[in-house]
Specification:
By secondary structure, this protein is an alpha/beta fold. The chain contains 9 helices and 7 strands. α3 crosses α4. The chain is globular, with a radius of gyration of 17 Å. The two termini are about 15 Å apart.
Length: about 260
């Protein structure tokens, strides 16, 4: 796979603050379920390879180093701590989940950082297939108010220093989940929960999803994935204009077309 991150444009705007005194999120740190949860068995190198997840000892050094280069460029843009990065594409089937997962993985390779991957593909979720998930609470349960405790929706991945939030069990096609304040509050809380954490949001194609356009407003920066020979220059330009130059961190050209 050949990929390239092109640094884009001017500056980044941080997420707007919220009044946590009126927040729907449980901010208590007294009982941190995320830390108390039993961790899953670490994924072996064979399992990581089968799941198409990069790891430090992998033979494909070109692919590994390209993701390391992306990590370095993103860190230089906004710093290594406390960021929310949205990964989207112009059109579907461009490999967004592959890029988002491996971006979270390569961040976790750095012993000074942790990562949290959130599956916001409510109509076509995929992370529950990549990581062990036993039907516990996820993003949809939090957004509809079944739980207010953020720790209940964060799950181990089998990769050290990397966790994820699956879509959950209550998502419904056509239902608007991101119009309220809970997703914005969640993004801010997860970004600030630990000062070494980077949050990666795996989102649908920006030209086909109103959800993604709302999520762009909640994040610090956006990586646009372009499937090789799958989109036109006009599509890329429209996607960039939709995201906005202030939020766009770069373009990732994905030749593998992995989903």
């Amino acid at each position: 796979m050949k990929s390239k991150l092109e640094q884009a444009l001017i500056k980044s705007h941080p997420i707007d603050g919220v009044d946590e005194t009126n927040s729907l999120v449980t901010f208590s740190r007294h009982t941190d379920l995320e830390q108390l949860k039993e961790t899953v068995e670490p994924l072996s190198e064979k399992q990581l390879s089968q799941k198409k997840i990069i790891y430090p000892a992998m033979k494909d050094r070109v692919l590994l180093n390209e993701f390391r280069d992306v990590r370095t460029k993103l860190n230089k843009r906004l710093g290594e701590r406390g960021t929310v990065t949205l990964v989207t594409s112009a059109l579907p089937n461009s490999g967004t989940s592959f890029v988002a997962t491996n971006l979270a993985a390569v961040i976790a390779h750095d012993h000074a950082q942790t990562s949290l991957l959130i599956d916001c593909n409510l109509n076509r979720p995929s992370l529950h297939k990549t990581f062990a998930f036993d039907g516990e609470a996820g993003l949809s349960e939090f957004l509809i108010g079944d739980t207010d405790n953020v720790s209940e929706i964060i799950h181990p991945t089998g990769i050290k220093r990397m966790r994820y939030v699956p879509v959950g069990n209550k998502y419904e096609t056509g239902r608007e989940f991101f119009t309220g304040s809970r997703m914005r509050q969640l993004a801010i809380h997860l970004r600030d929960r630990y000062n070494d954490r980077s949050v990666i949001i795996d989102a649908p194609a920006v030209l086909e999803s109103a959800d993604t356009r709302m999520l762009v407003d909640m994040c610090d920066q956006v990586v646009l994935v372009v499937g090789y020979a799958k989109v036109s220059g006009a599509d890329i330009k429209e996607a960039v204009d939709t995201i906005g130059h202030d939020k766009l961190a770069g373009v990732f050209f994905n030749q593998s077309l992995m989903k």
